[in-house]
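Q: How would the structure tokens look for this protein?
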Amino acid sequence: MDEQKKKSYFSAAADKLTGSPMFQFLGRAQEMEKQGKKLYHFEIGDPDFDTPENIKQAAIVSLREGDTHYENSSGISNLREAVAQEVKKTRGFLPTKNQVVIAPAISFIYFLTLCVADPGDEVIVPDPGFSSYYSAFDFIGVKWVGVPLFQKNEFRMAPSDIRKAITKKTKLIIINSPQNPTGAVMTKEEIEEVAKIAEEKNIYLLTDEAYDKMTYDYPHYSAASYDQCKKNTIILNSFSKSYAMTGFRLGYAVAPEEIAIKLGLMIQTVISSVPKFIQKAGIEALTGDQSFIEKSMKEYRKRRDVMVGLLNEMPGVKCLVPEGAFYVFPNITGTGMTSKKFAEFALEKAGVVLLPGDLFGEHGKGYVRLVYASSMQVIQEGLENLKQALKKRSENL
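A: Here is the predicted structure in token form.
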């Protein structure tokens, strides 16, 4: 059977699947490491910290108690109540338990979009933005409309640009603060204005708050405080980053009850339920000792400052200081290389694994993304290698 005939067996949706470029770069890097090349990893947003011991123990105890069976598809009652109390503490309102749904955080992007938009409808997203947004939308068949983020505005998503992007086909707006890939943090005023726009236009607003506990100088503010997730706003949140629980695949959504019901049905259909022992770990994360967050954020701040400093010493590279998350998004146009060529150069000449900015959208061209979720030693060694490689290149031009 020839290759063309094989392809004809795939659906149109499957042909649009692009997956995650982060994991594809990681796979290539791991193959190079198998061949003996020393590499410095800055491509995956996976904390190098171990999951706090109290959280791991909660999962272990739950396993030993036999919590290995099916559960409520929307999540166990105790975790949903813990999420509600967390929202009250951090966002100033108490959602009902029926507004809370438990699933892997990334799945809610796909599930929510399927629940509110049909093929051909439009979703507004930041550009550059989280690459899995685009992959999910392409697969579903909705059109994603990118709102450009600009370095001159510290990569904050402008409400006026969101308003301009709205059409009769717009069904969902997504904001992400703190943001992946830029580390930008929108102001309270900007976020409130977006919430007002969503209400005025009667459009759903997904506020992706996976990095809500990871800000440096400005407290996180949620668009959900505007309508308490009763009308337009849906919170997406994750345990992965703040609690170093990426392998647990645990997150939650807080939504208007009618949306939460549909999300629960989607989870029934695709996942069945999140394992109870994972959810028990989530309860401990929210209600147990929180000192890990303060400790890890102090370390991330140090790493950020070192990484930004080293990048700004490189010829042709300019890097803003991000206000949240653990990403930097330096401008590399001064090197004369495209984002892809810069990433190839960094990998081949310095052993540095980073991602081209245009993987995150059209307006990521001329930038690259690095993650400072690696040790200080890795950051210093890897970026010093890259600095020397760039200096040598500039001398030979």
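DSSP finds 15 helices and twelve strands in the chain.

The longest strand covers residues 170-176.

Upvote if useful.
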